[in-house]
Amino acid sequence: MTSTIEGTVGRGDVVPRGRGARARRHRHRWVGWLYVLPAMALYGWFVLQPLGLSVQYSFFDWNGIGVAKWVGLRNYAQVFSDPSRLGALLNSFKLIFFYTVLSIGIGLVAATLTRSMASRWSRAAQTILFLPQVVPLVGAAIAWKWLYAEDGAINQLLRAVGLGSVTRPWLADFTWALPAVGVVGTWVTLGLCTMLLSTGMGKIDPSLYDAARVDGAGAVQEFFAVTLPGVRNELAVAVTITLIGALASFDVVYVMTLGGPGRATMVPGVDVYQLSFNQARVGAGAAMGVVLMALVLVVVIPVQRLVRGRS
């Protein structure tokens, strides 16, 4: 018996069978791996290697220059026992309300409203909402810092409408500094959430809305019965992106407040930077970074599976 059995399908058409077909499939698999090998090499060098080094450094007391001293899990113990470290972690969870809950909630409303507009106005509204995505976050943070200043546009507007008693130096107020930073996070992520959800709504079969109206459903019932289940996958993407943005926030907080006043707006990203570069505690900063990475995975993966409806 030959290694290849040829079955003639049509004139000139030969279908290989047996070892020859298996060898060809095996060769094609290796060709595919060769195509992705450069990307895998870059990912390993620029992502996995630094991650491994961070884990390694987290077990040492090291200033970045001198001799490193093995301390085992002491750096991790400090993360969970030091009130300042725990406060930074707690602040990142508080920002989830602004980055995720508000952005997606307002984004659902905005996507529903923009889709009900005429196409020209709908595109204009979506473009305006999406603009913060193309603005560098450092530049946006500087602009918002000016707006929040004691003599900035926000306080001037409040005085103009007779609410002068409400004005304050927002970013220097221990109570309002974190919400002020959170509003910037909502502003930045709102456009992306709106675009994602609007795209998802565009894929919903219109006949589902017709069936709901025939059954007597109102606008609110249509939203919960048809629209919300129809954008489940887009919700999963939006929740994932915004959760990571909240937990790993750095640039906006660093530019606007540096974690102040006191540590009222301190988040893990800024804390890692200050520990590693300002205080020369590379091991402690690496431990905080590893904890942050684990925290992101622990929060994002179950939430993503829940939103997608997978057990």
List key phrases describing it.
single chain; mainly alpha; two-stranded antiparallel ribbon; disordered N terminus
**Total helical segments:** 13
CATH superfamily of the largest domain: MetI-like
Which radius of gyration do the C-alpha atoms yield? 27 Å
Helix-and-strand structural type:
mainly alpha
H/E series, N to C?
A: EEHEEHHHHHHHHHHHH
How do the helices and strands line up, and which of them pair or pack?
Elements: E1 7-10, E2 13-15, H1 19-57, E3 60-61, E4 69-70, H2 74-81, H3 83-116, H4 119-134, H5 137-148, H6 153-160, H7 177-202, H8 206-214, H9 219-230, H10 232-247, H11 251-256, H12 268-278, H13 282-307
Antiparallel strand pairs: 1-2, 3-4
Helix pairs in contact: 1-13, 2-13, 3-4, 3-7, 3-10, 4-7, 7-10, 8-9, 10-13, 12-13
Question: What does this protein structure show overall?
Answer:
There is one protein chain. The chain is mostly helical and 311 residues long. It folds into two domains: 7-57, no CATH class; 74-307, MetI-like fold. It has helices at 19-57, 74-81, 83-116, 119-134, 137-148, 153-160, 177-202, 206-214, 219-230, 232-247, 251-256, 268-278, 282-307; strands at 7-10, 13-15, 60-61, 69-70. The strands form two sheets. Strands 1-2 form a two-stranded antiparallel sheet. Strand 3 and strand 4 (69-70) form a beta hairpin. The longest helix is centred in the N-terminal third of the chain and has 39 residues, at 19-57. The protein is flat, with a radius of gyration of 27 Å.
